[in-house]
Amino acid sequence: MTTLNELNAADSAAFVQTLHGIYEHSPWIPERAAAQRPFASLAALKLALQAAVDEASEDEQLGLIRSHPELAGKAAIAGELTAESTSEQAKSGLNACSASEYATLHKLNADYNARFGFPFILAVKGPDGNGLTRGEIIATFTRRLKQQRAGELAECLRQIHRIAELRLNELLGVKLEYGNVIMGWLDIIGEWSDAPDNLTCAYLTRAHQRTASQLADWMRACGMEVQIDAVGNVVGRYAAATPDAKTLITGSHYDTVRDGGKYDGRLGILLPMAIVRRLHAKGERLPYHLEIIGFAEEEGVRFKSTFLGSNAVTGRFDPSLLDRHDDAGVSMREALIGAGHDPAAIPAIARNRADVLGFVEVHIEQGPVLLESGLPLGVVTAIAGSSRYLVELTGLASHAGTTPMTMRRDAAAAAAEIILMVEQRCLLGASLVGTVGQLEVPGGSVNVIPGHCKLSLDIRAADDAVRLAAVDDIFQAIAQICAQRQVEAAITEIVSAKAAPCAPRLMDQLGAAIERASLPRFDLPSGAGHDAMAMAALTNIAMLFVRCGNGGISHNRLETMTADDAEIAARVMLDFFRNYAA
Ligand SMILES: [Zn+2]
Q1: What are phi and psi of 177, to 5 degrees?
Q2: pTM for the structure as a whole
Q3: Centroid of ligand 1 to alpha carbon of 310 (angstroms)
């Protein structure tokens, strides 16, 4: 086994020789990174190797990609792969393909090469290093064949970095202290679902209650005192050495959207649990009580009411929601009582703000920014505020055959113009995004000019002034478009939520912990809402984002992240907890 110290002390030739197998047939990569030694950590070495690739010319990058073998290709069958590739392909069972799987992969390899001019690269050892299944490999291959060339080139390089990361772990004998435990837990509760063939865990269903009781059992085994509160939050407490200490809260939600991913929310519960497990094993206490809350509900799937868990903790649970019904006609009150909870006890969940030091949430990014920056972690600056509206347009329904083009009052054509205007306007602001997600011509017919059209409008930005300026401009433009087309617009506000800025003091402490792990601090806003947004009503908040794979996709079964990123996130959070200063 090699050590980082040996790599730092070796002469350049020996350094390059030791790392020759990390990037397939490409010694120029360790050659270019060699001068940056000594590396303070494995993370720093990985970043230096990645930078050598990212700064190389496109020809060199293509050369690197083309030096990789096809998956289950001719070279694999003929036994002509490098030792590393042979063992990786064998780990996913690619050496045991059926005849039809070989045929499928052969065709995919040929189609991919013809479309992009380089071979398909996939780290077949997968997110936890245990190997993707052949089915997963073929599904990924099929999906990526439809991408654009530039995006696919970047994805191949990212997969090569992931392959290199796994090879480095092997070379240096790296054992993950947290990553595999966290991924293993995520896999177990990721199987418990309201639906037979995807992950759906809605508020107070059987799968949801089973997940809550498993989280409670695990928290106890990690050394925490645990209770499930009246709204269904699983609350674990790792007590400080001194009983009168204040409490730092972390956590996230364990409910999911329909057909969601297994990391969304749950990572933010399981990752700090793995940290407490280690603290407890070492008998180490923190100078404050650490609470991990698995929030019962954030996504709003069952009762169309979001942040139930975190709102209860801040004392903002709206009791009128208890009379809301799900699609099967069950009220929230009935669901709570059925699950053994006492709805009357919900107000008592509210925390006293004087006892709470702050709330820090770990969450997958649910977007591509960290992935494209080549960084595992980011510090969230603010959770975007959002404005949502329903726009109803009224023109005049008339005959599609007899009404001349110049005499129409077409509500759908006005909607189309509005959608494109929203897209153009929202290109103009930092972190500003605008979406028309619902569009309807009620009672429309193929031969009638649309007299009515309904559309939704969702505008978000991390900076409230940026968002409100965009809303103003969009309203003016809607008025202009409608005046020109003799269409009337009625706009109803559905949501107006202010941005929740993160506390600079907590951001700096998270950033310092990231830098102590020899990673650069990288700040980014969150376009999605999170429990931290609700918790901001009670205390100072901060968030640590962890990189997602698969183009940053989330709220989708393709959501993914790696055990190595979970590991570095856990190490950074442990360092943050140990060094936390009020
Ligand atoms: Zn979430």
Answers
A1: -85, -30
A2: 0.92
A3: 12
